[in-house]
Amino acid sequence: MFRSMSPRREFLSGVSELVASLMVLLITMALGSLVIITINNYSYGVSTLFKSDVERKATEAVKSLDLIMVSGSKSSNTIKLVVCNGVVKLEIVSIYVDNVPVGGSSITLEPLEIRVLEFKSPIKLSEGMVFQVKVVYEGGERVIYGYTYG
C-alpha cells in the first residue's frame, strides 16, 4: 500500500544552462550582424546613387547656353546665330532650323565665350520670313526665333 517516496533519478542528456545561453547569444549576434551589414550595404548603394544624381544635376545646372540673337540672309541663304556660354566648357550637339538639322553643327564653346555662328540654312530662306532655331547642347536645349532680311 505504501509506496516508497524515494526520488527517481532520470538521466537527461543536454547542455548546461550556461552553454545554452552562450549559444543563443552567439546566434543572436550573428543574425544581428547580418542584418546590420545588409542595411549598411543597401544604404551605401542608395547614398552613392543619390550623390551621383546630385553631382549630375549640379553639373547640368552650371552648364548654360544663351542664344542672344539670330538673323537670316535671303541672298546667301545663311544664318548668323550669336551664342553666349556659361562658366564651364560646353559642346553644342546639333542645331535645327525649323526642325531641319544643320549638317556639321558640333561645336565646342570655352567658358564665358561669346561666338557668332554662321552656317548655311537647311531650308530656303525668303525675305521677311520668321524662322525657329533650336540649339541642342549637353545639358539641354534652347530655342530662338529669327527674321530674314534681303
Write the layout of secondary structure elements.
Blueprint: H1 17-62, E1 65-73, E2 78-85, E3 90-97, E4 100-101, E5 107-109, E6 114-120, E7 130-137, E8 140-149
Parallel strand pairs: 1-8
Antiparallel strand pairs: 1-2, 2-6, 3-4, 3-5, 3-7, 7-8
The SSE order reads HEEEEEEEE
Strand content: 35-45%
The portion of residues assigned to helices is: 25-40%
Query: What is the terminal-to-terminal distance?
Result: 135 Å
Tell me the major beta sheet. 8 strands, mixed
E-strand count = 8
| Low-pLDDT windows of residues | none
What would you call the shape? Answer: rod-shaped
Number of helices: 1
Rg over C-alpha atoms, rounded to the nearest angstrom: 37 Å
Structural class label: alpha+beta
Q: What is the average per-residue confidence, as pLDDT, rounded to a whole number?
A: 87
Key terms for this structure?
single chain; about 150 residues; alpha+beta; eight-stranded mixed beta sheet; 1 helix; 8 strands; rod-shaped
Kindly describe this structure:
Helices cover 31% and strands 37% of the residues. Strands 1, 2, 3, 4, 5, 6, 7 and 8 form an eight-stranded mixed sheet that branches. The mean pLDDT is 87. The termini are far apart. It has 150 residues and is an alpha+beta fold. The protein has one helix at residues 17-62, and strands at residues 65-73, 78-85, 90-97, 100-101, 107-109, 114-120, 130-137, 140-149.
